[in-house]
Amino acid sequence: MNLVPLEHRAAGHDGPMQSNDGAIFAKPAVQAELDFYNNILSQYHGSGAEIDEFEEPGSRLIHWMPRFFGKLASNDPGAGDDNVYIVLDNALHGFKKPSILDIKLGSILYDETASPEKVERMKKVSNETTSGSLGFRICGMKIIKQGDFELGIDGLNEDEVLDKDQDGFITFNKFFGRKLTDSTVSKGLELFFKKNDLPSKIQDQLIETFLIRLKLLYNCMLSEEVRIISGSLFFVFENDIDRWEELQYNDHIIDIFEYLSNDGDESGDEDEDEPSKKNLSTLKFIDFAHAKMTPGESYDENLVKGIDNLINIVEKF
Predict the structure, then answer these.
(1) pTM above 0.70?
(2) Helix (H, G, I), strand (E, B), or coil: what is residue 47?
(3) For a Cys staple, 126 with which of 132, 155, 247, 250, CB 3.0–4.6 Å?
C-alpha cells in the first residue's frame, strides 16, 4: 500500500498518512493502541458470536471508533513501535471541503506510564485550561476561509493561535484551545459550527445532529468499563453545498455499515455505495494510545464529565 501525507488535519503529532485514494488513514503505531482496538473487537464479536444487527446504533464504543484494519509494516523511520503503522478507515474520506474539530477529553491527561516530568507538565496544562474545569479542551480546529476573518474572542491574539492562509482553510493550533476559558470556549465552538458559508438551516441541522450523537455517546460511555486518557472526539462536516444537494441533505447519525463490518479485514476494499462514504458529517472517538479495558470498574468519570459539559454548551447554540 502506497502512503502519502494526510491531506487534512486539525491536531495531533507529525506522521499521519493516507492511501493514495484517501480511504485509508495510517499513523505511527503504539502497541497499547493496537491492543485496545483488538480487545474492543474481541469483546464485541465474542468467541464465535454473531453480530447483533438490531442493537441500538451508538450503544457500544466500537460504534464510534474508526474501522480498524490492523497494522502495516514500514521501513519509514517515522513509524511507531516495531516500525509499524496502525491502519484505520479515514474519517475524512469522501468529504470535499471538510471543517474539522479535535476535542481532547478528560481532566487527567497522563497515565501510570508517564514520567514524573510529564505528570507535572500535564497537570499544569489541565489546571490552566478547560481540561481541568470542564473536562474537555479544543486541541485543534480547521474551518473554511470566509472573507476577511476576524477572531473576535477576548484574550486571544490571532497571530498566536491561527494560520489564516492554508489552501482556503483557517487552521487553529493547540494554543487556541489552551487560551480559551470557561466563559469563551463556547465562542470557540461556535466558530466551528457557524463560521462558514452554509445556509443557517444546514448549520442548525448540523448542531442538532451532533447533539444527538453526543447524547448517544454519553449514554454509551456510562456502560463501558474502560479508561481512556487523552482520547479525542473528532468532528467533521461538509462545506461543499453541491455535495449537500447531491445527497439530498440526508446525513447518517451513526455509520451503521462500519461497525457491522468492523472485523479487522485488512483488504481495504470499499464499496462505492457504502453509507459511511455518503455522510455529510461524522463524529468519531479517536486516539487510544493510553487506553485500556477495566472490567468491573464501572465507567470512566474522566470522560463522561467532558461529554456532559460539551452537550450543555452546544445545546445553547
Answers:
(1) yes
(2) coil
(3) 132
